[in-house]
Amino acid sequence: MEYISTRGNVKAKGFIDTVLMGLADDGGLMVPFQIPVISPEKLAEWRSLSFQELFLEIFSYYTNDEIPYDALKEMVYTSYSNFRAPEVTPLHKVNNSLYVLELFHGPTFAFKDVALQFMGELYSYIAKVRGEIIHILGATSGDTGAAAIQGVRGKEGIKICILHPHGKVSKVQELQMTTVDDSNVLNLSVEGNFDDCQKVIKELFADLDFKGKYHLRAINSINFVRILAQTVYYFYAYLQIEGSDEKKINISVPSGNFGNIFSGYLAKKMGLPVNKLIIATNENNILERFVNTGEYKPGSFTSTYSPSMDIQVASNFERYLYYLVGEDAEKLSAYMSKLQTEGKITIAGEALQQVQADFAALGVKNQQCLDTIGKYNEEYDYLLDPHTACGIAAYEQFNGAGETAITFATAHPAKFDESIALVGIKQEFPEQIAALFSLPQHQTVVEHDKDVIVRELQAFYE
């Protein structure tokens, strides 16, 4: 297995070099040269596997034997040893047509832990066996930062800097990042929104001299390993449902940066027989508009009750567009250039029909999000965080008669108590979260100015 750039101007790379590259040197995103297809017989064999065993099976198709099996196994089992559920991602049955896959049992109570605890172990392994200096740089709308920091804090040979939008993440998300006092962690709170943070990150990774000088590595979902790790729970959830091979299974996914839903698209291309992939967004509904009209055009930013999806520029959209245009790097590059110069791209005809065959999408309004939280708490005694509530609302919109749905619970509701309180629900915080409020914070508030951020990075990395 080799990896290539969506824009076609990077020499094919192996697995570890792809991990280290993050954003491709030509500005594109790395993808496998060929996606392996899992046979129905192999899928049937996987039904009895634990999450960790399934992880190892899936990764074996992608690692090119660059990592010895025993080393990979140790990384996987270490990564999930601190999850609060033995299944890692347990499946909860809500009613006869709905299951919720709980992705919030990791150390920071969010789905990002599933990929990022492993990535922390992987970067640590690479740093040791290659003698690499690793400086991780990322942006977060809330959950990625906490999970990434937790995955690498205190690890030798690694430093991490995370940019988050000042005052635009939940208080718990902020505390999970900024109460960490390890010397290898820097939190920059940027006066702006997530898209502003993400733009700076992409510009710095595109500056190959800066990237090389400071050994920058990506932790965001521009890194293919994030995508691949997330495919595991798509397979795991599907295989946990009894008789799933005889049912129409839909999966509804809260999505802002298109990474989580793209992992589902990858799983489907690998042979997972999912019926519908449903994109749930909020009032920052660029993805809903794209699926329904073919127009991909970032609009005005809106703050919502589901802040982790307050995103207008979805990083992983480029990966999907690459496959939509038939893996034609030249055509993909032309689209991305047009997006840069004109501020939008439009898909029509057969291509739009393919988009609508691949996805359904719903942009959930703020009040609908709160109403869904209240409804499921009252009717099923099941408390949803606001992002999961968007996923549930989308399930209600698109799940057909006789179909079964899995909605991803992407975060524990305690992470978004500001939204839960608006419904009149008083929740009890888990002990680990409650303890955060008494700890001092460590962060630097900076202007949304690339030069200012660069100076902070230089001081930290040097």
UniProtKB/TrEMBL annotation:
Enzyme's top EC category:
lyase
Q: Which residues form the Tryptophan synthase beta chain-like PALP domain?
A: 88-399
Q: What is its EC number?
A: 4.2.3.1
Q: In which organism is this protein found? A: Paenibacillus graminis
Arranged from A to Z, the UniProt key words for this protein are: Amino-acid biosynthesis, Lyase, Pyridoxal phosphate, Threonine biosynthesis
> Which positions fall inside the Threonine synthase N-terminal domain?
2-80
Q: What does this protein do?
A: Catalyzes the gamma-elimination of phosphate from L-phosphohomoserine and the beta-addition of water to produce L-threonine.
InterPro entries the UniProt entry points to: Ser/Thr_deHydtase_PyrdxlP-BS, Thr_synth_N, Thr_synth_N_sf, Thr_synthase-like, Threonine_Synthase, TrpB-like_PALP, TrpB-like_PALP_sf
Protein name per its UniProtKB record: Threonine synthase
**Cofactors required:** pyridoxal 5'-phosphate
Which residue ranges traverse the bilayer?
none
**Stated family:** Belongs to the threonine synthase family.
Q: Where on the tree of life does the source sit, at the highest rank? A: Bacteria
Signal sequence, renumbered to the chain: none
What are the recorded Gene Ontology BP terms?
threonine biosynthetic process
Q: Which SUPFAM superfamilies match?
A: Tryptophan synthase beta subunit-like PLP-dependent enzymes
